[in-house]
Amino acid sequence: MSQKKSSEPTPLYFVGIDGGGTKCRAELYDTTGNLLGAGVAGAANIARNGDVARQSILDSVKAAIEHANLPPETLASTLACGGFAGANLPSASNALKQWQHPFHSFYFTSDLHTALYGAHDGANGAVLVIGTGSCAAALKDGELTQFGGHGFLLGDKGSGAWLGKQAVVHTLEAIDAIQPKGQLAEAVCDHYQAHSATALVDKLNQANPGVFGELCPIILELAHHAEPTAQALVKEGCEYLSAIARKAIQQSNGALVLAGGVAHALQPLLDSDVQAKLTSSTHGPEWGAIMLYQHGAFNQGANA
């Protein structure tokens, strides 16, 4: 972990950052913990696209500074700390360590770590993240254990992007007359304005997870109205989410906090024993990142 030289001025501001697969959110605080401003930018998965993630980090912090009515040069007086999707992967974290950032100093960990730390105020507990991706994690005596969260290509079951991808796979099979072409397949074709297999593959072959995640509200709405394929997808996803949540609860021996943009919609569909362990989050991941810094719990920093 590298810091600015001790001869340089101490930071005047702190910014906590939550960087996910779809958006990056920053909260700017003064040194006494007063929230001054917040900003949102694009995707910040450092494993998927480091250049895009670094730009999103900068854009979100700049937006928070602007929201606080502070000048742009505030950036150099700000200690930035955040949690980012993909930071658990050594190749991604090693690349981010080399970043010549413009902040006073910069510390980072995984988005799960900051979410857990903020949610339970640093105490033992579990978190289930259901957004563009999915993951569960446990914090016990300061040690983080992760379940799932293996990325869009290899995992993230039950997430918005996973649901969308499975719906597209079903639609392609329906177009090929392998599956019946019901409401879900029609809705997928209508959403992407692609009504042949070739058109659909051409549009989505290089698409990022967020593009597949666009289908999530449509799938949930169809499942609510008993469309059988949508119902089956949501059921399969929630069974998996309940399983990894259960593992995290057992590991932490604590309560469970839900996080992520799809969590509220899927909460009633999780297994009853998982729902019984739910509690409210104490703090958001942005403040969780700042708490990690205050408690000396970061073990990664970027070049000053």
From TrEMBL:
Coiled coil: none annotated. Residues 15-291 form the ATPase BadF/BadG/BcrA/BcrD type domain. It comes from the Bacteria. This is ATPase BadF/BadG/BcrA/BcrD type domain-containing protein. It comes from Pseudidiomarina aquimaris.
